[in-house]
Amino acid sequence: MSKQYETVIGLEVHVELATKTKIFCSCSTAFGGAPNTHTCPVCTGMPGSLPVLNKQVVEYAVAVGLATNCTITQYCKFDRKNYFYPDNPQNYQISQLYLPICRNGSVEIETAGGKKSIGIHEIHMEEDAGKLVHDEWEDCSIVDYNRSGVPLIEIVSEPDMRSAEEVIAYLEKLRLIIQYLGASDCKLNEGSMRADVNLSVREVGATEFGTRTEMKNLNSFKAIARAIEGERARQIELLEEGKQVIQETRRWDDNKEYSYAMRSKEDAQDYRYFPEPDLVPIVISDEWLAEIKAKEPELRTAKLERYKKEYELPDYDAQIITGSKHMADIFEETTAICKKPKKVSNWLMGETLRLLKEHEKEPEDIAFSAENLAKLIELVDGGVINGNVAKEVFEQIFDRNIDPEKYVEEKGLKTVNDEGALRETIEQIVADNPKSVEDYHNGKEKAIGFLVGQTMKAMKGKADPGMVNKILKEIL
Question: Which PROSITE patterns does the record match to this protein (predicted)?
Answer without folding.
Answer: GATB (PS01234)
